């Protein structure tokens, strides 16, 4: 079959684009089996079926097209857009990840010199930016599951690659969440397994720094993960409560305000231990965190999250107090000042939150009372202002009426004077 040309579509290919718009996966599958349908055919703008599916947020359609050999890096669009760029514009993180996992190149630029991440950021799709900036292909990790050179055994057992990759791909850098991911997988939650994973993270960190296209952001993330893995291993070795003990240590808040001091110190220590002192990113992090007293903003977690994921602080979203997961909606029923993603996180945090829950409740009630008082005062002032305006209008109306009355009277007098009428002349 001939190479695709812009706008050169068979009737079945035209129908395929219509079916993609409608989201009919079953019909699209039938059409892709036709001889006159090319999976990488181009419409008049140079868009492939995969680009259309990505832009319209059709995850199942994208998966189907990739299974049929769709070229994820096709760059025939009139403005140089790729499927990854359209995925970022759609705001769908699952489709963005799908494009990346299929081999999408992240450094390709469009006609105005923007990458997929920059385009997503331009339209406010920051979650997609985070996915793109933090993507680490499974193939790169699988490299360490095979013996290299004279090695008799690989550095990373193949059974650990999946669980470790899940930790690497997490965009939630809260150490509590990372420990939870480790704890939930029995293969990973063993001292020997953690030590091997930590060593691989250190090797990847070193490679990110020393490669030609140095990637300090990814290097810092791998270093941070290695620190978390190391801390998990030490608790498994030395503590009877094991990872539960580590979770409690990370969550425990100080008595005065519940701030997790141990967690803050741990993250600061992770950053301080970054082995490449000349790295620009390290210097930026230190300058941002060092002057801040523990317990004040910005926290080490927020600074690190912004540096690695590209998310600016924790604005415009609610995050779980326990694990830092985005989109938390459940509040403590007593104080209503802390928020959780589910009951499990609330239960895990209660041992420390209960110490300040009543205090937070009193603070909230005081704030609500002050706010209510302020609203009443504002309402009174607004009512007074409205009444003053009404009174002023009424006074103006009376003054205007007084000015008009004499002239009317005079007019009436002139009209009623017999000498001024035509009849008087007779």
UniProtKB/TrEMBL annotation:
May be involved in the trafficking of signaling proteins to the cilia. It is found in: Cell projection, Cilium. Coiled coil: none annotated. Signal peptide: none annotated. ANK repeats lie at residues 45-77, 79-111. Residues 371-426 are annotated as: Disordered. InterPro entries: Ankyrin-MYND_dom_contain_2, Ankyrin_rpt, Ankyrin_rpt-contain_sf, Znf_MYND. GO terms for molecular function: zinc ion binding. GO terms for cellular component: cilium. Residues 320-357 form the MYND-type domain. It comes from Oreochromis niloticus (Nile tilapia). Residues 371-385 have a biased composition (Basic and acidic residues). PANTHER family: ANKYRIN REPEAT AND MYND DOMAIN-CONTAINING PROTEIN 2. The gene is ANKMY2. It comes from the Eukaryota. Keywords: ANK repeat, Cell projection, Cilium, Metal-binding, Repeat, Zinc, Zinc-finger. This is Ankyrin repeat and MYND domain-containing protein 2. The keyword rRNA processing does not apply.
């Amino acid at each position: 079959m001939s190479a695709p040309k812009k706008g050169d579509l068979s009737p079945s290919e035209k129908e395929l684009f219509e079916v993609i718009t409608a989201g009919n996966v079953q019909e699209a599958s039938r059409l892709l089996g036709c001889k006159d349908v090319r999976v990488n055919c181009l419409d008049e703008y140079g868009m492939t079926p995969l680009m259309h599916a990505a832009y319209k947020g059709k995850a199942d359609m994208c998966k189907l097209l990739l299974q049929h050999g769709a070229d994820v890096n096709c760059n025939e669009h009139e403005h140089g857009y790729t499927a990854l760029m359209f995925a970022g514009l759609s705001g769908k993180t699952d489709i963005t990840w799908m494009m990346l996992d299929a081999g999408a190149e992240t450094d390709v630029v469009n006609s105005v010199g923007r990458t997929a991440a920059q385009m997503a950021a331009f339209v406010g799709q920051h979650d997609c930016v985070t996915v793109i900036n933090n993507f680490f292909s499974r193939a790169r990790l699988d490299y360490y599951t095979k013996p290299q050179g004279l090695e008799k055994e690989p550095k990373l057992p193949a059974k650990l690659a999946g669980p470790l990759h899940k930790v690497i791909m997490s965009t939630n850098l809260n150490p509590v969440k990372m420990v939870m991911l480790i704890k939930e997988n029995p293969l990973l939650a063993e001292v020997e397994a953690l030590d091997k994973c930590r060593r691989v993270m250190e090797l990847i960190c070193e490679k990110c720094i020393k490669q030609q296209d140095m990637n300090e952001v990814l290097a810092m993330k791998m270093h941070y993960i290695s620190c978390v893995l190391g801390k998990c291993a030490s608790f498994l070795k030395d503590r009877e409560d094991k990872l539960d003990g580590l979770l409690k240590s990370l969550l425990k808040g100080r008595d005065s305000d519940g701030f997790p001091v141990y967690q803050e110190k741990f993250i600061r220590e992770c950053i301080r231990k970054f082995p490449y002192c000349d790295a620009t990113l390290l210097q930026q992090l230190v300058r941002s965190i060092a002057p801040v007293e523990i317990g004040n903003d910005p926290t080490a977690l927020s600074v690190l999250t912004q540096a690695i994921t590209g998310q600016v602080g924790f604005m415009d979203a609610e995050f779980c107090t326990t694990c830092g997961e985005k989109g938390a909606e459940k509040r403590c029923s007593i104080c209503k000042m802390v928020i959780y993603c589910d009951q499990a996180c609330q239960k895990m945090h209660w041992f420390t939150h209960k110490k300040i829950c009543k205090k937070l409740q009193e603070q909230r009630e005081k704030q609500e009372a002050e706010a209510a008082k302020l609203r009443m005062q504002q309402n009174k002032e607004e009512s007074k202002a409205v009444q003053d305006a009404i009174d002023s209008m009424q006074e103006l109306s009376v003054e205007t009426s007084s000015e008009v009355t004499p002239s009317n009277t005079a007019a009436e007098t002139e009209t009623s004077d017999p000498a001024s009428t035509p009849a008087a002349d007779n």
